[in-house]
Each structure stands twice: as structure tokens, then as C-alpha cells.
Design goal:
By secondary structure, this protein is of the alpha/beta class. Helices cover 26% and strands 18% of the residues. The protein has 15 helices and 18 strands. The longest helix is centred in the last third of the chain and has 29 residues. The model has no long low-confidence stretch (mean pLDDT 95). Bound molecules: flavin-adenine dinucleotide and iron/sulfur cluster.
């Protein structure tokens, strides 16, 4: 089946120079709260929107509630770092632990499309080894599914986004549906430095159109991917899955903050969700509920959903909700070159290497890291320089020199630890809901990975001719917090992302990942959601066939 036959989103966008199909939104099917829909989804980001599209296509009545707006790229997004701050989830949260993780602009999104609206667009697959780190390496956890179970969904999603890149030699070697983009000044230097050191670096994989795709135009290399691509060249589920979902009868209810998942104590099933829209508390009835609110908000919502059956939070029988939350160590190294680089004149995601991804038995640490090009715009670069302690006149001098700097970022596979978790703080938000407290500490393995990744990035810059190199430690990409496992004493959901404790409750976002590899997570989150949808539809068909056979 062609991509268009499976998902028509790119063809449903306008081709008249505007970016949003307003008619499609106006004509969208609207359900009443009293309608018992087949599925209500909390959060319409990476995982939620893919599930929505798949089930709408299968004829299910589906509603996705999102706390943020239904964005219109033309009117809502600006080519400006500060003006784009509204794309992030900036509601109050509490952070602590030995190595607290700042929350806000470098993690979760808000509004239809979720984090994919402002993600960089890197879309690597996980490696087969990621699914078996405990049994093969003695660290992390094994997944209740294998890479092979996910491969067909990776392939489908790579066509739908679509992904452009060179043939990929690492993990399960594979090709991409679209050819690699030409690269800019920063990526050329990264390639030069890597080549000099004998490190293989490849172009991509990025979910950015290389050529026209449906009515989505070619990338114009203006470098604002993290501010929401006004051009519609970079994939976000707002444009890659929501239009097709609407065309197939799904409803997207924006600005609707879900405050609780309801449980029928008699049946043990969920009956729908409580939410607040326009200041009014409402309840959407549903036969199935999927939570896809991101690794902080998903555990928070479950912990806030208490009942006699679940006094400590829904699905929390084994005190696992919120635990094993992971973040990748993401040190960033900037190199100053004598010539002008103008790294901003290209998408931030360009070239990457996974040569250090797997455990190297000659090293004292387990698992590994990847290295990618990143191109911070001026405000983010100023934060990088200021983190070195530079301020005032010195900071101004560095910023005047901005066009000479080029940046690399690493993603280090930090391990899942039980004490790294979300609990509920005593503070409440504007809805009266207790906010999430995220406690995070690194282990020795994590720290060693950060040091190793920094060293390689600094070597690459120097080998490419950098005169000065500055590195900051930072974090990226939260996953985990409601992980999947093969039995309920080890995880919150099974390999199909179905909650062990509530049979009609699903979790279909990054929270379910048991390990995180050294890859950016969005493609894996979307592929898992697509797999869950396929299994749900197959189950429903089997049930229908059995009922028909019996009657
Ligand atoms: C700057 C930046 C760059 C990134 N770059 C990359 C990249 O290059 N590649 C990559 O793979 N990943 C990248 N990521 C990470 C990626 O965006 C996330 O991993 C991914 O979007 C997570 O998907 P999700 O489905 O778990 O949640 P999200 O996509 O965050 O979706 C969650 C949605 O749920 C909604 N929500 C939450 N709680 C509620 C509630 N109670 N009621 C209603 N709605 C709710 C939110 O508004 C949001 O829309 C990047 C992230 C950032 C911040
Ligand atoms: S660089 Fe390309 S993908 Fe990124 S914002 Fe610009 S047009 Fe969009």
C-alpha cells in the first residue's frame, strides 16, 4: 500500500501558500461528553496523534484531548527564539535529587503535535541491543518485545514523516526512503573532524522533506526547526498524522486539560476522563482510555487518579508508577573556527554518528553515546557561553563572534534507576492538581559516559581546526516513568502498552520505554503507538469474529 493510501495527511494540507487546512478543522466530527466513544486519548503529541490516526482509519470513534492549542503555523509561530516559548510545557513542576533536571524548554511540548512541534527532527531507530540490555550486558532492563517486532512500524513511520538520510550502517543496517539533504557549514566541519579521526559520520536521519512531499514543500534551510517549522517541511504529528485522523472522523479537542482517569470499581475498567475546558469541569465517557501526556505528565496524571481500588494512584499496585524515569546526558561542545561557519543557516539536525552506541568491552562503562550536529540560535548559544561563567563584556564578545562557532551534541544512554522518579509534590497547579516532583540522580556509569562523549566531541572539533572549544553538560529527552515489562511486578504496562491493572487503559507515549539507547526517542514512541493500534484493531476484529461465529 502506498504512503498516501495509508496516511493522506501531507495531501490534506493546503498548497496555496498557507499551512493549515481550516476547512478540515471546521468540518471535524464533534462528540458529546455523553457519547461513549471507543477511545479517548490524553495528549496529542508523538504517541497520542499516531494512535489517533491509526484508530480513526480503522473506524473507531476517537477523541484526543490536549491541554494546549490546536496550532496554526501561519498565525501562531514566529521565527524568533523568545517568541516561541509558548510551544513548551511551562506549568509548575518541582525538581530535586543529586543532579536535578531543569524542566521546560528542553523537554516537553504543549498543544497538538506535542513535543514534535519543536523537536529537532532527528529520527534514528533504536538498535536491536537496546531491547536486551539486561540479559546481554547486565544493566538496564529487557523489553517485553524485540527490535524485530518494531521494524515494520519503523519502516511505515519513516515513509510517513518522511525521513531523509544516507544508508545507515549501525544497529540494524537499513536505508531511508528519501535521499540525504545537502549539509551546511557546521555539518561540513563535523564531517571533516570525524573523517580525520577515522570516525564514521552520516547525513541524517531527519524527518524533514527533501523535495516536495504531498503538499508539503522542500525545506528552505532557514534553521528554525526548534521554533516550530512555519514552512511545514519538518515533520510534526500536527501535520503528519492529525489531518488524516480528522479526515477519518477523529475529534481533536484542544485546550482541554485532563485532571483524572475515572475507574468503575465494580468492573475494574476505566470509564473515561475528567477534564477542564474553558474553566468548566467536564467528563468524557469512553470504552478505552489511552494516556499519552509525556514522561512527566503521564505518571503525574496516574498518581493523581486515586480511588478505593488505587489509593496510591492508578496502576500503582507495585509502586512502579513514576519510577525508572530516564533522561539522556546531552553534553554540548562548541568549537570556534577562524573562518565564518554560519551554522544557523541549516536545520539543526544534519549529521550524526552511532559509532560509540554499543558497549565497548575495552571501556570501564556499559552502553554508549551518539554524536550529532546541533545549531543553537543566539539565545541558546548565549546560555551555553554564560554557563562557562562568562558574563557582561566577555559574553558580548562571544556573541559578536557567533557566526564563527559550530556545535556538536551527544546523547548518552543514562541507565534506568528506580530512585529516578516522579512523585506528587504538595504544591498544586491552577486546576488544584498536585504538581509533579521529579527526583533525579546520576550513577557512576552515567558520569563516565558524559566524560567519554565530551572527549570525543572536543577531539572532533580540534581535528576540524577549532581554535577554542567549550563544553557544557546538559540533559535531553525524558522517557520512562510507566515502563513496559513482561509482568506486573516489573512494569506498569505489557508489551502492547496495555496497563496490567486496568485492562482497558493504555499508555502510548515515551513513558513506557524501559531503556532509552543513545537515539532520539520520537520515532520509537510513534512506532510503538502504531504497533499498539494495529494490535488493538486485530484484537477487536478477533472478538467480533468470535461473536459472529457464536451467534
Ligand atoms: C528542543 C527539543 C528538541 C527535540 N528534538 C528531538 C529530536 O530531534 N528527535 C527526537 O526523537 N526527539 C526530540 N525531542 C523529544 C521529543 O519531542 C519527545 O521525545 C516526544 O515528543 C515525546 O512524545 P510523547 O508522546 O511522549 O509526548 P509529547 O509529544 O510531549 O506529547 C504530550 C502531549 O500531551 C499533552 N498533555 C500532557 N498532559 C496533559 C493533560 N493532563 N491533559 C491533556 N493534555 C496533556 C501535552 O500538551 C502534549 O501535547 C526533542 C525535544 C525538545 C524539547
Ligand atoms: S530548516 Fe527546514 S525544516 Fe527547519 S524550520 Fe527551516 S524549513 Fe523547516
Amino acid at each position: 500500500m502506498s504512503v498516501r493510501e495509508r496516511n493522506e495527511s501531507a495531501w490534506l494540507l493546503p498548497n496555496d501558500g498557507t499551512r493549515t487546512n481550516h476547512q478540515l478543522r471546521e468540518d471535524m466530527r464533534r462528540y458529546d461528553d455523553t457519547d461513549e466513544v471507543d477511545l479517548v486519548i490524553v495528549g496529542c503529541g508523538a504517541g497520542g496523534a499516531v494512535l489517533l490516526q491509526r484508530l480513526a482509519r480503522a473506524g473507531w470513534s476517537v477523541v484526543a484531548l490536549d491541554a494546549g492549542p490546536h496550532w496554526d503555523p501561519d498565525s501562531d509561530w514566529v521565527s524568533d527564539e523568545v517568541g516561541s516559548h509558548g510551544l513548551y510545557w511551562t506549568e509548575p513542576r518541582v525538581i530535586d535529587g543529586d543532579d536535578p533536571v531543569p524542566l521546560g524548554s528542553n523537554n516537553s511540548g504543549r498543544g497538538v503535535g506535542g513535543g514534535t512541534v519543536h523537536f529537532a527532527g532527528y529520527t534514528p531507530r533504536f538498535h536491536p541491543s537496546d531491547f536486551r540490555t539486561a540479559s546481554t550486558g547486565g544493566v538496564g532492563a529487557d523489553w517485553p518485545l524485540d527490535y524485530d517486532d518494531l521494524r515494520p512500524y519503523y519502516q511505515d513511520l519513516e515513509q510517513e514523516l518522511p525521513v531523509a538520510g544516507q544508508a545507515w550502517p549501525w544497529g540494524d543496517p537499513h536505508r531511508y526512503p528519501h535521499s540525504p539533504h545537502p549539509v551546511g557549514g557546521g555539518a561540513l566541519l563535523a564531517q571533516r573532524g570525524a573523517r580525520a579521526l577515522g570516525i564514521e559520520m552520516r547525513v541524517g536521519p531527519v524527518a524533514i522533506t527533501n523535495g516536495r512531499f504531498g503538499n508539503r514543500p522542500h525545506c528552505i534551510y532557514r534553521g528554525f526547526c526548534l521554533q516550530g517549522c512555519k514552512v511545514n517541511a519538518k515533520a510534526s504529528t500536527l501535520i503528519t498524522h492529525v489531518p488524516d485522523a480528522l479526515a477519518h472522523g477523529a475529534e481533536v479537542r484542544a485546550d482541554a486539560m485532563v485532571t483524572g482517569v475515572e475507574l468503575d470499581e465494580r468492573t475494574g475498567l476505566s470509564t473515561g476522563v475528567h477534564y477542564v475546558k474553558d474553566g468548566t469541569a467536564r467528563f468524557q465517557r469512553a470504552r478505552h482510555v489511552a494516556v499519552a501526556g509525556y514522561s512527566i505528565e503521564t505518571p503525574r496524571l496516574l498518581l493523581n487518579s486515586t480511588s478505593r481500588r488505587f489509593p496510591d494512584g492508578m496502576c500503582n499496585d507495585h509502586d512502579l508508577v513514576g519510577r525508572y524515569l530516564m533522561v539522556q546526558g546531552a553534553p554540548q561542545t562548541a568549537g570556534r573556527y577562524p573562518q565564518e561557519v554560519r551554522a544557523y543557516k541549516a536545520p539543526p539536525p544534519e549529521v550524526s554518528t552511532e559509532a560509540f552506541y554499543e558497549t565497548d568491552p575495552s571501556k570501564p562503562y556499559k552502553r554508549g553515546f551518539s554524536i550529532q550536529c546541533v545549531s543553537p540560535l543566539p539565545v541558546t548559544f548565549a546560555e551555553h557561553v554564560a554557563a562557562q561563567g562568562h558574563w557582561g563584556g566577555v559574553l558580548r564578545e562571544y556573541m559578536r563572534d557567533y557566526v564563527h562557532w559550530s556545535n556538536l551534541g551527544a546523547l548518552c544512554e543514562f541507565l534506568p534507576l528506580p530512585g529516578n522518579r516522579v512523585t506528587l509534590a504538595d504544591e498544586t497547579d491552577r486546576h488544584g492538581l498536585r504538581v509533579a516532583r521529579f527526583t533525579y540522580s546520576q550513577c557512576d556509569n552515567d558520569r563516565q559516559l558524559m566524560v567519554a562523549a565530551r572527549e570525543v566531541m572536543e577531539q572532533i572539533h580540534r581535528a576540524a581546526g577549532a581554535e577554542e572549544v567549550i563544553t557544557i553538560d546538559r540533559y535531553a529527552h525524558l522517557v520512562g516513568g510507566a515502563r513496559m515489562a513482561s509482568d506486573p511486578t516489573r512494569g506498569v504496562v505489557d508489551g502492547q502498552q496495555r496497563a496490567f491493572a486496568v485492562p482497558n487503559l493504555l499508555i502510548t507515549d515515551g513513558s513506557t520505554l524501559p531503556t532509552q539507547g543513545a537515539a532520539n526517542p520520537a520515532l520509537t514512541i510513534m512506532s510503538l503507538a502504531a504497533r499498539t493500534a494495529a494490535l488493538l484493531v486485530a484484537d477487536a476484529r478477533r472478538g467480533l469474529d468470535a461473536r459472529q461465529a457464536a451467534s
